Amino acid sequence: TADDATIEAMSFHANAGPVVQHLLDCLPMLGDTKVSESFISRLLFWNGDEGEAKDYLSSLLQDRRGSHLIEKIVSVAPDTSFARLYAKGMRGTLCTLAQHPIANYPLQRLLQNIRDRAQAQLCFDELQESMDSLFHGNRVGVVWRLAECCAKFGTRQKEFIKALRSALVSTTKPDNAALVTSLLTYGVRGGRSQF
User: Fold this and answer.
1) What is the pLDDT of residues 149-179, one digit of tens each?
2) Side-chain half-sphere of 24: how many Cα atoms within 13 Å?
3) DSSP letter at 15?
4) What angle do CA 17, 30, 90 make, to 5 degrees?
5) What percentage of the chain reaches a pLDDT higher than 90?
6) How far is residue 94's CA from residue 96's CA, in Å, rounded to a whole number?
7) Are 63 and 106 in contact (CB under 8 A)?
8) What's the rounded Cα separation, in Å, for the pair 149 and 116?
9) What does the DSSP 8-state code read for residue 100?
């Protein structure tokens, strides 16, 4: 068993990090969610002090290499581990993560992998007030993933359009009309929009 320092070093290492990510990819093939939960728990130091674990997660989210580990965990985690990561590690900080030049990518992956309608609603409720700053801060990827998340669970769609419209109206860029048309027609399939 690796000690804490070794696990931490591997999570941020240019060569060891991808190996750990590959191991995470293999876990679902074992068919034992307890093994996956245990491995993820160990990687994120969930068995220790909760405050230290949250600080460690924050450092991973903001690190160029560590953020890839979080993206992988979000993609392969069993529902219980995913819910714990979201509720105890990311919820309440989504707006800050969305503005960060690195942490916005794991947030986008989180939005892609939301597991249920309640989580989707919580994410929207937290991010909706930041829609304007997301556009101004060039974080349109976060907006797009939030749109997909709302569409996937059929929730908060009217509120999303209202927040989007408000954000675009407050922007002074001349190409907003083209952007709105692009965003609203991108998800159209077979004559029906996902919204």
Assistant:
1) 999 999 999 999 999 888 888 755 555 555 5
2) 25
3) T
4) 50
5) 77
6) 5
7) no
8) 10
9) S
- Match 């924050």 to its residue by tokens: 58
Joined tokens for residue 20: 């750990």
Cβ neighbours of residue 169 closer than 8 Å, sequence gap 6 or more: 176
CA 136 to chain centre: 20
Q: Nearest CA to 94 among 136, 134, 154, 147?
A: 134
Half-sphere exposure at residue 136, Cβ-oriented, CA atoms within 13 angstroms: 10
Number of helices (H), then strands (E), in the chain: 13, 0
* Closest C-alpha to 128, from 94, 104, 84, 102: 94
Claim: this prediction has a pTM higher than 0.85: yes
Q: Two tokens at 142?
A: 């976060």
Helices 104-112 and 66-76, interaxial angle, to 10°?
Answer: 10
Q: Tell me: the pLDDT tens digits for 36-58?
A: 999 999 999 999 899 999 999 99
